[in-house]
What we know:
Layout: H1 17-35, H2 39-55, H3 57-68, H4 72-79, H5 82-96, E1 100-102, E2 108-113, E3 116-120, H6 126-140, E4 143-147, H7 154-166, E5 173-175, H8 180-189, E6 195-199, H9 202-212, E7 218-222, E8 228-231, H10 237-249, E9 261-265, H11 269-281, H12 301-316, E10 320-323, E11 341-344, H13 351-354, E12 361-367, H14 370-378, E13 382-383, E14 385-389, H15 393-402, E15 407-410, E16 424-425, E17 428-429, H16 434-440, E18 442-447
Parallel strand pairs: 3-4, 3-6, 4-5, 6-7, 8-9, 8-14, 9-12, 11-12, 14-15
Antiparallel strand pairs: 1-2, 2-18, 7-17, 10-11, 13-16
Amino acid sequence: MNPATEEAFAQVAMGDASDVDKAVAAAKAAFQGFARTTKAERLDLLASIRGVYEKRFDEMAAVITEEMGAPISLSKRAQAAVGIGHLDGVVRALEAFEFEKTNPAGDIIRHEPIGVCGLITPWNWPINQIALKVIPALAAGCTMVLKPSELTPMNALLYAEILEEAGVPKGVFNLVNGDGPTVGAALSAHPDVAMVSFTGSTRAGTEISKAAAPTIKRVTLELGGKSPNVLLDDCDFEEAVTRGVKHCFQNTGQSCNAPTRMLVPASRYDEAAGYARSAAEATEVGAPDRDGRHIGPLVSDVQFDKVQALIQTGIDEGATVIAGGTGRPDGFNRGFFVRPTIFGDVTTDMTIAQEEIFGPVLVMMTYEDDEDAVRIANDTPYGLAAFVQSGDRERGLDMARRIRAGMVHVNGTDISFGSPFGGYKMSGNGREGGVHGIEDFSELKAISI
């Protein structure tokens, strides 16, 4: 379904448990041979994948725009581009990775591929998460079955074509489309799957963990977030607030690591709220097939209804609407477009301060001093990312070290390709990207001689 037009543009076969059985059998049959390939052979394979991906880059950007509504400029600049960025990060890690070495005690320590891996990916950054699972799994020597989101299956089908053209051996990569309760559950529970790597909601991650438990398989999870953005009193407030609003609204707010809670000193709240209102009012909503820095629609009617309900909950619980609110923006009578929304006077006990909204909705909260800021930042069941703005590098770093999150961005910086992506608490376990991603797809073996 094209979320901008609410019209269907393709049909995809919905898999079932028997399809999972066939795919897992193919991956199991291919594992023994692929696990014995050399690092050099796998590096050559990744180089081939990169070349084919580059050739079909514009196709990838276009299909992501059509099926999930990311504006085409964002699809080219980020959505499709990360498919190359993450591959390059894994290649750098693989080049330096020692699969076998001797420890100080004299034992041989080996990293060996864990086996057949079930990969379950979301719709919001589809190729980002496919690449963060498929590429390190290949680098480690694993075979795999991918179940992409049923909301965004077309980019995964295109990626399957890319892998085939690049020469990935038969059975090493397998794709089964379907929904979570059918294909996802069958993959998670399958006795011949050694590992499940899942990205999505915390609720779904819990169900996958339960399904995987009887077979004691490894489960890595990259789940939800409610990331704080702490503005210390020595930062440039106009710049920091404006940047924070834009970052929160990027991808129409459909990012697990988005800075959705802006924490400002109580004494500077009115000033910050004014800058936030201006930034929200300057945010354009537009058709995803048009170039520009605007935001597009949400991915589906279900997501639209969820975001509308949470905006109404914020109003009902007494938060102040600084900008936006319920309903579609002016000029839109179809498509899953929403109004960029900012809430003020938000307290930690409000639903919108605790639940992941996954839309262009920012909540603004006040703190009294640095200790209070740390307390509020950590007062969430999540711990995926955090953001700190400060005019003093050491002060910003001190705040970053005290926040319980897997990634902390200081003064608008970003985590590099190859650095670990993942979170604390209910944001999941395990890490993706670079050497950490390769390690997650590996078993450790100690050999004494």
